[in-house]
Amino acid sequence: xxxxxxxxxxxxxxxxxxxxxxxxxxxxxxxxxxxxxxxxxxxxxxxxxxxxxxxxxxxxxxxxxxxxxxxxxxxxxxxxxxxxxxxxxxxxxxxxxxxxxxxxxxxxxxxxxxxxxxxxxxxxxxxxxxxxxxxxxxxxxxxxxxxxxxxxxxxxxxxxxxxxxxxxxxxxxxxxxxxxxxxxxxxxxx
Length: 190
Hints:
This protein has helices at residues 2-24, 53-62, 91-94, 105-110, 127-144, 171-186, and strands spanning 25-26, 40-45, 73-77, 84-89, 111-116, 151-153. The longest helix has 23 residues, at 2-24. It is of the alpha/beta class. Helix 5 (127-144) packs across helix 6.
């Protein structure tokens, strides 16, 4: 009976997770290719109070980035006509091309860039942003076999001189949330 409960709980959790992603991810139709290139997840904050993918895309194009927004995903904070926790998928992800989110080119080639809208030197990410970040990273980790040690804050990449994703974003707390969610979702034992 206990195994049945865990089995049912697992599938209900999986259904809720899938429903969450379809509801909150703008453009989920972007394929998750079988590419083995993705080895890191790099977390950023926008350093701005408001924003969305289109705003960042325009800004980066004006700065000379021909592929637009530097990130693969942007997670909204409820400003600029995007929902709190809404995940936007950039054309870089849809086309499976390298990011422009770090000065270190090697990171851009093998690192998935995720930007949370907000300035986390002054505020904290919203609860919904963190929930979306956990869900997205869980999906990316399972799809691309990215080890927990390869999830980094932008400022934790060797050679990057920034405190991004901000002093109020704890990468250790985030990793703890991610592991707890993965264990809760995938536990099917006594």
